[in-house]
Each structure stands twice: as C-alpha cells, then as structure tokens.
Amino acid sequence: MKRILYVVIIAVTLLFGVTFALQNRQTVDVGYYFGLEWTGPLSIALLAVLALGVLIGYLASLRMVIGMQRSLVQARKELRQVEQEVQNLRALPIKDVI
After folding, report:
1. For 77, phi and psi rounded to 5 degrees?
2. Cα dihedral angle (60, 6, 41, 54), rounded to 10 degrees?
3. Nearest to 28 by CA among 37, 20, 19, 36
4. Interval 56-83: pLDDT, tens
C-alpha cells in the first residue's frame, strides 16, 4: 500500500514539475557575487534554488540525525549488557527458597 502511495506522490510531483516548467519557459538573468551572471529558463533557476534549499535543510538536520544514531547505539549497548546480566542471574542456583 505504501509503495502505491509513493508512486502516486512521485507521479503527481513530476506532473506538476513538468507543467510548471512548460508554463515558465521565459529566460531570466541571475546575478551572482563578483560579477558572475547566468541566463537561463526560470524553471531551471527555481529548481536550482529548490535543490540548494533541500541540501541546506539536509545538512542542517544531519547533526541531529548523527546524535540520534549515537544515542541508539548507546541504548543498544546498554540493552545487551542488561540482557547479559539477566542471563547471568538466571544461571545462578537459588539456595534460600522458602
């Protein structure tokens, strides 16, 4: 079910992207720092800005993801230690049973 949903979302996104690119064919001049300029279709310029934004967002969230992965590794290590302690305690003979 999730696969079908993902396919539909990707198809709708591609459809909107293609129609947006076809409706915005006019060229734009984009000026950069140090006198650099680029001339090209508006849709490509917007797509480049979107890709840059996605990259910046990914890099901004990367620190949090790495921290969460470290916490997960630490929690798994503690879980293994606790499970080993439980196994050791179960292996001990019980002498003082009433």
Report:
1. -65, -45
2. 0
3. 37
4. 999 999 999 999 999 999 999 999 999 9
Is 97 part of any domain? Answer: no
High-pLDDT (> 70) share of the chain, %: 98
Contact (Cβ atoms closer than 8 angstroms) between residue 25 and residue 32:
no
- Counting Cα atoms < 13 Å in the Cβ hemisphere of 77 gives 6
Structural domain for 76, as ranges: 1-91
Q: What pTM was computed for the model? A: 0.59
Residue 22 domain flag: yes
Asked whether residue 10 is domain-assigned, the answer is yes
Cα–Cα distance between 41 and 25 in angstroms, integer? 6
**What digits encode the pLDDT tens for the residues 20-40?**
888 888 999 988 888 899 999
CA distance 22 to 67: 42
